[in-house]
Specification:
single chain; 510 residues; alpha/beta; Rossmann fold; GMP Synthetase, Chain A, domain 3; 3 domains; globular; binds xanthosine-5'-monophosphate
Length: 510
């Protein structure tokens, strides 16, 4: 296991990704971790991440320097390297030549473990204002760039390595090889972390935690909660009761499909709660997006809680929390961000009902969850599902939500997804969906004048939903989508394509 100390770099998740791509398990921890805690985790190596601070700044993040006398190999990246050098008696100074972007790395010591198999000269990606001016005793320079004499350093005997550039980004093409060398040549890790081994350990862990008690799990139909439920099922079978709240704001036949896959095939114990009319009634006449979200969130919580209470003596609540959420909430540096759209989940429930949380995916990234889903034999259709918001189609119907409008949007959405899938775009897109506008426009069908609804198609590419670009779908496909929708869905006579990026727009319209 590798520990990554989070000094606040925006690339920390990338470091973790790279390490895991080498099939080595790693965890990102804040620098407030104590040397004792590190000792008990017994990592095979420690990576000190980059960060925006300068090591001599008053409140710059620090880790207990005792980590340098534990005999564990350390790789410091950018700020991490400077911190190590500073802590061991070297000197760092604000350099008069700031360096951002590409630089040519000249490897001076090809015998160095980190640079094994790497050419004499290779591009690297820099982003720093400070530079090392004096190395501590025992360190030597292993690589330089035109502006940075000490671009890489090593204390071979102690197995301490420092890189001024970022090996984790794609702009450093040999960066992955360097990390690979650190993991296997320096730390002696073995490439044994796979989703099968993860599932085996997670199952044992869940069994040890839950014992013979009962667990409640909320299913949304999305990848995360489905994989969580399948994993928990493998561990404790019928001791798990899943609750699926059908709020009437789902896609066409969603609840039915889920029933077939999770209940009939995987034999999960699921309670389907049909409360469609409850939601529709509460939403009647509501146009404001935030109001819609609040109403849906509140009813969902009430319904879920009432159902959960029926499961007597339940002590645990399963949740599909993923690693990026954990990292964000633990980061000492990420300040509170403005609420753009309120999201809901069952976050408040554990405290209210005195339930203990079981979050078996909390150290996984999304693509790992998908791989785990495959290992657990979930069908592709579920594993590769695009994200779908909790408030569902209600935030894709601009203006009032009615049964009739839901029906129209459901039909449009089904055609859109059919075409996107047939065109081979479903997995390439982060999301693709339709939005029903509160507008009508004039059209002509046969010899008749029509005055009907307009739908907007939204298709975006994204890595993490923080930013997104509108997808450059082929005109032929867009034409086919538009033709089919207008011909097949009664009540729609115009289709438009949304060409806005995020930011400044958002992915959903409400
Ligand atoms: P926006 O519209 O803010 O959406 O760019 C970013 C991502 O979040 C999803 N989304 C939600 N997911 N509950 C959810 O579980 C919500 O209330 C919600 N609102 C937006 C959206 O689909 C996109 O993937």
């Amino acid at each position: 296991m590798i520990l990554i100390i989070d000094f606040g770099s925006q690339f920390n998740q990338l470091i973790a990704r790279r390490v895991r791509e080498c099939r080595v398990y790693c965890q990102i921890v804040p620098p407030t971790i104590t040397a004792g805690e590190i000792q008990s985790l017994a990592p095979e190596g420690i990576i000190l991440s980059g960060g925006p601070a300068s090591i001599y700044e008053k409140n710059s993040p620090k880790i207990d320097p005792a980590i340098f006398s534990m005999g564990i190999p350390v790789l410091g990246i950018c700020y991490g390297m400077q911190f190590m050098v500073g802590a061991l008696g070297g000197e760092v100074a604000r350099s008069n030549k700031r360096e951002y972007g590409f630089a040519h790395l000249r490897v001076r010591s090809q015998t160095d473990a980190l640079f094994q198999g790497i050419d004499g000269e290779t591009p690297c990606w820099m982003s720093h204002g400070d530079a090392i001016v004096k190395l501590p005793r025992g360190f030597k320079i292993t690589a330089s760039t035109a502006n940075t004499a000490i671009a890489a350093t090593v204390h071979a005997k102690k197995r301490f390595y420092g890189l001024q550039f970022h090996p984790e980004v794609e702009h450093t093409p040999k960066g992955k090889a360097m990390l690979h060398n650190f993991l296997f040549r320096v730390c002696g890790c073995s490439a044994s972390w796979t989703m099968t081994s993860f599932a085996r350990d997670a199952v044992a862990d869940i069994q040890a935690t839950v014992g013979d008690k009962k667990l409640i799990m909320g299913l949304s139909g999305g990848v995360d909660s489905s994989v969580t439920a399948a994993l928990i099922h493998k561990a404790i079978g019928k001791q798990q009761t899943c609750i699926f709240v059908d709020n009437g704001l789902l896609r066409k036949e969603e609840a039915k499909k889920l029933k077939v896959v999770l209940k009939q095939h995987l034999k999960l114990n699921i309670r389907f709660v049909n409360v469609q009319t409850l939601f529709l009634k509460a939403l009647a006449g509501v146009e404001d997006p935030e109001k819609k979200r609040k109403i849906i969130g509140k009813i969902f919580m009430d319904v879920f809680e009432a159902e959960a209470k029926k499961i007597r003596d339940a002590e645990f609540l399963g949740q599909g929390t993923l690693y990026p959420d954990v990292i964000e909430s633990q980061s000492a540096f990420g300040g509170p961000t403005a609420v753009i759209k309120s999201h809901h989940n069952v976050g408040g429930l554990p405290k209210k009902m005195k339930l203990k949380l079981v979050e078996p995916l909390k150290y996984l990234f999304k693509d790992e969850v998908r791989r785990l889903g495959k290992t657990l034999k979930l069908p592709d259709e579920l594993v590769w599902r695009q994200p779908f918001p909790g408030p569902g189609l209600a935030i894709r119907i601009i203006g009032q939500v009615t049964g009739k409008r839901l029906g129209i949007l459901r039909d449009v959405d089904a055609i859109l997804l059919e075409e996107i899938r047939a065109g081979g775009f479903y997995r390439k897109l982060w999301q693709s969906f339709a939005v029903l506008l509160p507008l009508k426009s004039v059209g002509i069908m046969g010899d008749h004048r029509t005055y009907e609804n307009i739908v907007a198609i939204r298709a975006v590419t994204s890595k993490d939903a923080m930013t997104a670009d509108w997808a450059k779908l082929p005109h032929k496909l867009l034409g086919q989508i538009s033709n089919r929708i207008i011909n097949e869905v009664r009540g729609v006579n115009r289709v438009v394509y949304d060409i806005s990026s995020k930011p400044p727009s958002t992915i959903e319209w409400e």
